[in-house]
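Our preliminary data section would be incomplete without showing what the modeling component actually yields. Below, a chain of 411 amino acids is followed by its predicted structure, encoded as tokens that our downstream tools consume directly.
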Amino acid sequence: METLFDGIDLSKISTSMTINAPASILLAMYIVTAEKQGHPPDQLRGTIQNDILKEYIAQKSWIFPPEPSMRLIVDTIEYCAKCVPQWYTISISGYHIREAGSTAVQELAFTLADGFAYVEAAMERGLDVDDFAPRLSFFFNSHNNFFEEICKYRAARRIWAKRMKNKYGAKNPESMRLRFHTQTAGVSLTAQEPENNIVRVTLQGLAAVLGGTQSLHTNSFDEALCLPTEKAVKIALRTQQIIAHESGAADTVDPLAGSYYVEWLTNKMEAEAGAYFDKIEELGGVIPAIKANFFQKEIANSSYKYQQEIERNERIIVGVNDLQIREPCSTPLLKIDEKVAEEQINNLQNLKESRNNELFKESLINLKQAAEGSENLMPFIIEAVRNYASVGEIINTLKEVFGIYQEDSIF
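Predicted structure:
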């Protein structure tokens, strides 16, 4: 982290980290790096994704079981509310749920259900909803069905605002505002005729803007083939800039409000999401529903149905199952030199040899003892980071207390 931000004043930038199971550790590393630059935590701005529930549901990059994982998340919420007040403590992510094969309604419902679970866990810790809710944000996918995506965002904002006010008693309008980032759908990109992805990304980006996104990531057209090249990245950036500065789409809030179809579809999606909330509640909440494989089965079934529609030509993917042109791929591919990995391994080994290993060991002992109790773990993780404990070493220490989560097979 020190190397990454060498020469960059962390008090003057905002940093987003797409990190989940080890999010508290990466946040600690960022805080200590800023500390060494002379900047206190209350000057820092940024976001950690830190959304572990969607890992069990869709992305599958968990480490610990759900209960200790939720403890770590509430620890970060509590710590940041007191010490890093400008930091967004969770980016509650539907993106990966959609990439795993969910429908738009499932993405909407499961993402918001996760958000409500985090709110309830923080309130059970004794935190006031208005002390932490303004620093929750969301991350949605933008897929190919133009109007469905727009209505998904409109429904999400309404559901969140009503639930925060009416169920959780939020008084601060900032607690009721659903702030969200959108990324265009990686899963929609095709290796066949990759230039077609520029059109897909443009429509997806436009839908996100018309739906009210505050932040946007447009994928590069070659991402079905490789990490994006400089040319592909530039086209993705220019797509955003043309939407922002030339289309007029961002000139007014909710420009499609009042359209019969848009209002009808927004209401329909809100109602269908509500039916999912009822099912999740019947199962006892998000974590019991995860352990019952409810989310996983719903997504798997939707993904299978979608693929069947493509293979039966009931759903047309241009250049893939219809309107095909047989031609060799001429897109330049980005290749990464394997020496980069070797250099990083050597750097880590040198660090372990040069640090104060007595202080390092002591800090991990203290962290383990705290994990066995009920204290907020963030101060102990920060102390371990100050003594140059690595992500893996801190994770292994917590594994000794929390164990590792094993998912049941889905039948």
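Residues 14-311 form a domain with the TIM Barrel fold (CATH 3.20.20.240). Strands lie at 14-17, 45-48, 87-88, 90-93, 136-142, 180-184, 215-217. Preliminary results of this kind motivate Aim 1 of the renewal.
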